[in-house]
Sequence to fold (678 residues):
Amino acid sequence: MNDTLQTSSLAYEVHRFSTADWIVAGTALFIIFNGLSVCIGWWARIPILVQLYPDDAPTHFNTALSFVLLGIGELGIVLRRRGVVIAMAATVTCLVSAELAEYAFHMRLGIDTLFAVPFVGLDAAYPGRMSGNTIACLLLICGGQFCMSKPDRDAGAATTAAVVMKTLAGGIAFIALLGYVVELKNAYGWTDSVGMSIRSWVGFLLLIIARIAALWQRDIRDKPNLPNWFLPFLTIAVVTISIGLIWVFSSPVARPFMLDPRYSALAHRISATIILSVGTLIILGTISVLAARHKAMTARVGEQKLSSVQAQLESTLEASSVGTWTWDIASDRLIADEFTARMFSIAASAAAEGLPAAAYLQVVHEEDRTDVADALERAIQLCGAYDIEYRVRRSDGAFRWLQARGRVESDGAGHATYFHGAVIDITDRKLSELSLRDNNQQLKRSNRDLEDFAYIASHDLKTPLNGIKSAALWLEEDLHDLSDESRKVLGLMRSRISRMERLLDDLLTYSRVGRTETATSDTKLTDIFASIIEVLNPPAHIQVRVEGDLSVIATASAQLEQVLRNLINNAIKHHDKQNGEVVLSGKRVGDFVEFVVRDDGPGILPQFHDKIFQLFQTLKRRDEVEGSGMGLAIVKKLVEQQNGCITVHSQGNGTGAEFRFQWPTRPSTYDAEELAHA
Fold:
């Protein structure tokens, strides 16, 4: 299972990117290629790659190199490679700090020309050196990358700090943009260098816009709460833009035509428009801050309520013996709640931090471990559901039965990412099932023993009974001078012997039900009915007929014929009127045929409906009726053997009786292995 996870880890790294990650990655790649083009321009002395137009400040080599490294650092953040981020940010920090030291100590350390010799901007005080605002932006961006590289558990405060620093850098770049628009060098060049180039302020703005867009996608778009970084970002952005607009447009040199008297009226109108715009921006910014603060407070209240609901849910799950878990498949980190940890004898703190799945699997009973591992592997491969019951060994040595259910979550490419599930303690239910299974086995053994006894007893009793019958016949034949009373006694003895024979035959029939395999064939029900009439040969005053069309079914015909014959024979035998009829009908109901045997005889009172299906039960005295009292008991057993049931409907008092039973259109089969383990 671990081999499969390791094989798919590379594909998982590629496909796990969110929309926010793609935004940052795309911007980072653009900045890297832009920086490389400037570096190539310096090495190949191509002016257009270094300076977009003659009046533009050139993008210095060290600045372009810093952008390449910053782009790689942004990719490192996306790919969660902290070492790459720190290495790139540290390299840029050292490079720009060296140039800052040149300004601070009025020295020439050769950093400006370390990688390329300037061929444009030679009229500047320090050819090839970054401007002060470019240095400030690079240091702020590097600080932001340091913060963004921290682990997820520190991401709250770290993200806020990173946004603050990158927003300040974006504000400086925006002021440079305004400086180029109004041709005010003080806005884009803070030192004696040539100033921040167009490529530089575009790169800084792209970096901050991409990061804010990514954070917006991740932290705001689909979440009700307002992240901690949003208020500082909004405040700094509004203040920076407002200060930049006021500074740039309040200077009379911002636009040379504003000094010309011919345009004074226009200049005043422009100034008024600018003041109104700035005021509006400040007001909107203030409203945004207040609205964001209100949303944050509302979200905090919502989070508190959600936490309360989650606590109640956890309490409910705990009371109902249910635990939950989540498995990060790529990192093999399974996080579980306290109940799950207790079931697997794992410390709750370790389970909350996350452990490999093998730590849980090793607690599973040795006989169940392979099945559990196979079920997990199958669910991961198919990105499907997981449902299995197994035993775990507790730390006290006792075993508990658990039912685990879960489902695999996949990415857009169909690769398994997360495995969410729950475990339920089913020990009590399982013990009840095992106890019930043992009781069923004991009951089956008892029934089998009783049937064996009935079979052996009825079979073995027939031998001495035949001897008694033969002796009675010999006596009657040999003794010619018997009195009438003696002959009456011998006749009564022969009658009792015949009844005993019928009883033993019926007992043998009853005990054989279910013992022998039933032959199955396509049976025409009309043929069965004809065979029954031929055997029973009903008297002329009783009409036996079929109602409706009886179809052909595949069934055990011998057993069905025995059931119908017993029911029809009972109806004929107990009929008490000069003329009567017995009607047989049947209709298809799903996989069964429902048979009805109806007569217009004396009927059966409701209080005797259950009694008639019991062994050795008759509604008349033994001497008044021929039979053993087992006919309906045999019928009931044969019907139930086919997973059917039989009922009687009658009110007695000469209203007749109606017997209904279901018989399958296909024979009942049993899984021998299932019965053996039942």
About this structure: The two ends are 33 Å apart (CA to CA). The mean pLDDT is 76. Residues 206 and 230 are 18 Å apart (CA to CA).
